[in-house]
Amino acid sequence: MIPKRSKYAIQALKCLAKVYRDKKHLSIATIAEEENIPRKFLEAILLQLRNGGMVGSKMGANGGYFLVKHPDEIVLSNIIRVTGGPIALLPCVSLNFYEECTECPHEELCGLHDVMLEVREASIHILSKTSLADLILREKKLFRKAESKRK
């Protein structure tokens, strides 16, 4: 599972992506309310995203947070990594959070390790090609599909 911090980061970035074309800035309070994210937690997440080069902030009456890159350029794998989340399901196959497996004397001979390497690579492939813009488009399609089923 991806950490809650990464999930909230994706939600916050989607919120900012939706106003990107209008060059709007959104306050922490607005994002927190729209996305149902605890405000203090969101503050820390937005700081990580700013340090990761995904969002900027502006002080003042018209201030708030904004995307510094186009929503097509921000991919899910980078968001998860910036917010400290591993992509691998097991620490012994993680690229950034590797830990030696204590249950297995030889990782290179472990069938589960081998399968989880494949899962990690497939996950990285999908998450690295899926942008915020793609995610928003998927949600629009899912909404239309759900609406057509109700009729």
Spatially, the strands of the biggest sheet line up as 1-2
The residue-averaged pLDDT reads 90
How much is the radius of gyration in Å?
18 Å
Silhouette? globular
Structure description:
The chain is mostly helical and 151 residues long. The chain has helices spanning 4-17, 28-35, 39-51, 76-82, 111-129, 132-150, and strands spanning 55-58, 64-67.
In short:
With 151 residues, the chain is mainly α.
Please describe the topology of this protein.
Layout: H1 4-17, H2 28-35, H3 39-51, E1 55-58, E2 64-67, H4 76-82, H5 111-129, H6 132-150
Antiparallel strand pairs: 1-2
Helix pairs in contact: 1-2, 1-3, 1-4, 1-6
Which features characterize this protein?
mainly alpha, 53% helix, two-stranded antiparallel sheet, 151 residues, 6 helices
